Amino acid sequence: MPELPEVETVRRSLLPLVKNKVITAINTNWEKILINGLATFQKEIVGSEITTIDRRGKYLLMRLSNGETIISHLRMEGRYYVVKDANTPFDKHDHVTFTFQDGSQLRYRDLRKFGRMRLIKTGQEDQVTALAKLGPEPTPSTFDETEFARRLKRHHKPIKSVLLDQTVVAGVGNIYADEVLWLSQLNPLQPADTLKSKEIKTLHDAIIQELNAAIAAGGTSAHTYVDAEGNRGSFQNALHVYDREGTPCDRCGTTIVKIKVGQRGTHYCPHCQPLHQRRRPA
Asked: Which residues does the Swiss-Prot or TrEMBL record annotate as the active site (predicted)?
């Protein structure tokens, strides 16, 4: 699943390809992707132009000139790309097409058909429950360390599971949770409410730094991810533990192992990331 760095990279690569283009048609062969239904999309967005694309967590927000926003979640395999000629042959996994006034098309491809698009009035995004519950963006100006510590103290669940909870911090998924825990030398099974203040600070800073580094590298193409122009990211070359089970730890040489935490595949170094048995705070 694309995480924050990949979605941000898609946003940056897609925007110059569609900005200020007028939509003349929208069609789909898998209507479940369009939560409001095809008829509503056709009625509301045809004739409007895409003015910009924002992002919140793992969601793309396509802003339209008519005061509407298309909220898009790529889920596991979704991707956008643009063709200059609407007569360009379709791929069998192309499920939604936006035709523009200049004859080009924005196409949404999704092998598993899990992605979703929802139309809503701009400024009313918080009416979508998933968006309303999102935690802060992991930037220095929005991701407050004290508030992060307070949220961690609410949970006795493993820290890996808490990081994947989008209400605590937005945009961290399986890849980057493993990586920031390795950087912070925290065991993924460590109960969140047992972390010390120094460990919380280290983790907080690692989240910001790691996601920024991944964005700068165009994201992680560990599986099928590419940006809107078909380019792969390069951050997979900088990963320390994710998908590296059976290889030596970059820090100590111990073999990286893979376990399940909350039903999610999880990679860590047993030596660098020991599990500390600590009592819950009174």
From this structure: 2-3, 58, 264
Q: Which residues pair with 64 in a beta bridge?
A: 50
Known binding residue 112? Answer is yes
User: Is 93 marked within a binding site?
Assistant: yes
Identify the CA nearest to 143 among candidates 54, 215, 212.
212
- pLDDT average per 10 residues of sequence, the chain (282 residues): 94 98 98 98 98 98 98 96 97 98 98 97 95 97 98 97 97 98 98 97 98 97 90 97 98 98 97 83 46
* pLDDT reported for residue 223: 77
Which residues belong to the active site?
A: 2-3, 58, 264
Length of the chain: 282
For 4-131, CATH number out of 3.90.850.10, 1.10.150.20, 3.40.930.10, 3.20.190.10 equals 3.20.190.10
pLDDT score for 252: 98
- The domain segmentation of the chain, as residue ranges, is 4-131, 145-268
Confirm if 139 and 170 have CB atoms less than 8 A apart: no
| SS3 state of residue 209 | helix
Q: What is the fold of 145-268?
A: Helicase, Ruva Protein; domain 3 (1.10.8)
In the block, tokens 């007569």 appear at 87
How distant, in Å, are the alpha carbons of 10, 130, 143, 187, 219 from that of 170? Answer: 17, 11, 10, 21, 16
